[in-house]
Amino acid sequence: MDKWVLKKLTECFNCKKEVDQIIEIYANQAFVKCSNCGATRYYILRRVGVEDESIIEEEKKKEHKYEPWFLEKNAVCFNCKKEAIQDIAITETKMIVRCRNCGFTRIYQFHILEIPENK
Ligand SMILES: [Zn+2]
Ligand SMILES: [Zn+2]
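That is the input. Now the predicted structure with zinc ion docked in place:
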C-alpha cells in the first residue's frame, strides 16, 4: 500500500511550539513527527480486524493524559479496496485506523519516542 501522510497543526508536547505534526501511516507501522523539533513517536501494528464504530467512539470518551487527535482521510481501504472515509484516532498509547465502509481496522501500539538531540 501507499503510505498515508497527514498533518495536524497543534502544540508539540516536546518543543511546545504550535507547528505541524506529520503523521505517516504504513501497513505495519506509523509515525508522528514534529516538523519543528523532530520528536518522533513510533507505533507498530498490533492487530487487524473488523470493528464497529464504537472502537473510535470509546477513545473519544476515554480520559487521556494528552489530548487525543481524531482525523479523517479519504483513501482506498486496505480491505474493501473502495475509496471511503478512514477514521484515524491517535492517542499516547495507540493509533486506530478504521474504514467507515467495511469496518476494517488497524490498531497500532505506541512503541518508542525518539527526541533528536539539539545541535
Ligand atoms: Zn516539537
Ligand atoms: Zn474498507
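The radius of gyration is 14 Å.
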